[in-house]
Design the sequence.
């Protein structure tokens, strides 16, 4: 177990440092902070709401992540395949799961850094009023888990192509479908022809409905389990895909 | 302890309908440098990818130091160093960072050991001047050296190098061959190439692969002997011959092909070729006596590895 974690950590470490080796990391962090606060203040009408909470901040996260997570995750496997380094990686004494998990965690921890950098807004609402800090904490946690689900999906899909742009596009489209699954427009279309369990399954797959439930202050374990199992499922598929697609 | 470091039996690999490797058997012992020779797309790289565990063979088995690569891949991979075709590396990393990443992945967890190996590599492979430069800024020659260093970092018993000199200039090629020779004494090395002189320069054994099949498995010398039949003879004479003389000589020498060519104002080349080894020197000399030729050079032509290669693979 120790040796397993050790190799996974070396992969993780290389990958995470990789983000900071190019200007990509700082650009990404800036874009994330600018967009998330811009949306909070202008689109979310943070001040006009006159409430000391971060609903206006978190409400935009699914939409932000829809674009930003594929941008972080698109290179994970597409770039290894394009440059041929996948051959180097996979002839090292290391298992596919160590590679997939190490890489995924690097991108996930990178988004954690982004989220942590946004905490001044949390301090601000505490200065302005008396928010329910437990709700905010859980919102942060869920937001990070949702980011993880987007990233796992992107990582998985990035094995399908050698082109980062294509990886970005297919991940965004898939992410969009998962967000939209909870909209009544989509659900009513499905309901008209499909049995009720299919409609419910599709509805329950929605990132948005899970995330907005937390936002309303309702924390249920199912949301947490949903995002975690989403991550595990995507990574499991990721491991299989790496094996299948490595030599293409 | 078995000295067979690599043992591959009945390797097979297809991609769809295309048979890339068809029943290849190969053993490599310590101290050997085996050169994989073959036209592009012959199955060299595919074979190497299977030997390193990157591709799973459709059939057959591979033993690395006696360990089954299929059932114990992690253990078997430990003793292999591999330079993939094109020497891929993480171009945004510095040379030192990249090598220490590979070193750690290869199990050099002890810092002291890792640092010793890193400085060995810097020294042995001449990487000192680029040690802290990002790999993407390096010349092709240096990138290739980084690739070799990466394969050697854990001092493996087995080294598999896919076209290690491809794209290098003549000096760099020379250096690379020198390096391979230097490290070959206590390792089993497999290199692939389509440059024949390279095989003659560094390899103790030549394996010719074409259409996925192993067509020859010999020392370069033996391979030469096998094809070095005395059926081509050349004579260089310091005389200028006129057209009638040329015609005359051609008709009097009864061999499959006789070429007479004026090289310059004074010299002429007479080239005699036959299908079998039945060129009779005495007979030729007697026949040519009447022309009173001043013979400067006379020898059987040894086919180059190039010729042999073409004969085998066509």
Sequence:
């Amino acid at each position: 177990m120790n040796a397993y974690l050790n190799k996974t950590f070396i992969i993780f470490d290389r990958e995470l440092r990789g983000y900071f080796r190019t200007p990509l990391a700082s650009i990404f962090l800036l874009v994330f902070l600018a967009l998330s606060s811009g949306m909070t203040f202008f689109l979310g009408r943070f001040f006009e709401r006159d409430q000391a909470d971060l609903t206006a901040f978190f409400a935009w996260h699914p939409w932000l992540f829809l674009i930003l997570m594929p941008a972080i995750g698109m290179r994970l496997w597409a770039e290894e395949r394009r440059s041929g380094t996948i051959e180097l990686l996979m002839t090292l004494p290391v298992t596919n799961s160590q590679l997939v998990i190490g890489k995924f965690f690097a991108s996930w921890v990178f988004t954690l850094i982004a989220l942590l950098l946004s905490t001044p807004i949390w301090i601000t609402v505490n200065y302005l009023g008396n928010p329910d800090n437990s709700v905010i904490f859980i919102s942060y946690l869920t937001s990070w888990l949702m980011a993880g689900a987007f990233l796992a999906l992107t990582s998985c899909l990035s094995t399908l192509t050698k082109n980062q742009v294509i990886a970005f596009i297919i991940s965004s489209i898939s992410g969009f479908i998962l967000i939209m699954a909870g909209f009544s427009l989509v659900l009513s279309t499905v309901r008209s022809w499909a049995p009720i369990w299919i409609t419910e399954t599709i509805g329950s797959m929605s990132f948005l409905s899970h995330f907005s439930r937390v936002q309303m202050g309702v924390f249920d374990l199912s949301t947490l389990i949903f995002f975690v199992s989403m991550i595990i499922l995507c990574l499991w598929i990721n491991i299989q895909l790496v094996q299948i697609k490595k030599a293409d | 302890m078995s000295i067979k470091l690599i043992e591959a039996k009945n390797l097979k690999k297809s991609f769809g309908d295309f048979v890339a490797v068809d029943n290849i058997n190969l053993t490599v012992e310590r101290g050997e440098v085996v050169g994989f020779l073959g036209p592009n797309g012959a199955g060299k790289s595919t074979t190497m990818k299977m030997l390193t565990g990157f591709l799973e063979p459709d059939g057959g088995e591979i033993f690395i130091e006696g360990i089954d690569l299929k059932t114990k891949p992690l253990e078997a991979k430990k003793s292999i160093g591999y330079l993939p075709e094109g020497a891929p590396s993480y171009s945004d990393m510095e040379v030192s960072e990249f090598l220490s990443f590979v070193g750690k992945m290869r199990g050099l967890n002890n810092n002291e050991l890792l640092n010793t190996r890193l400085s060995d590599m810097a020294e042995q492979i001449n990487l000192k001047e680029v040690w802290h430069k990002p790999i993407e800024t390096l010349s092709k020659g240096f990138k290739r050296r980084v690739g070799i260093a990466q394969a050697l970092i854990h001092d493996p018993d087995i080294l598999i190098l896919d076209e290690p000199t491809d794209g290098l200039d003549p000096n760099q090629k020379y250096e690379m061959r020198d390096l391979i020779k230097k490290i070959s004494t206590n390792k089993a090395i497999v290199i692939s190439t389509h440059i024949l002189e390279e095989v003659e320069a560094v390899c103790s054994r030549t394996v010719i692969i074409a259409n996925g099949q192993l067509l020859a498995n010999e020392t370069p010398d033996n391979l030469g002997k096998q094809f070095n039949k005395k059926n081509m003879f050349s004579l260089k004479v310091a005389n200028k011959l006129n057209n009638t003389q040329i015609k005359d000589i051609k008709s009097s020498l009864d061999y499959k092909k006789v070429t007479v060519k004026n090289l310059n104002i004074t010299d002429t080349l007479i080239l005699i070729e036959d299908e079998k080894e039945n060129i009779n020197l005495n007979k030729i000399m007697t026949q040519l006596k009447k022309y009173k030729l001043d013979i400067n050079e006379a020898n059987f032509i040894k086919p180059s590895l190039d010729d042999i290669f073409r004969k085998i693979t066509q």
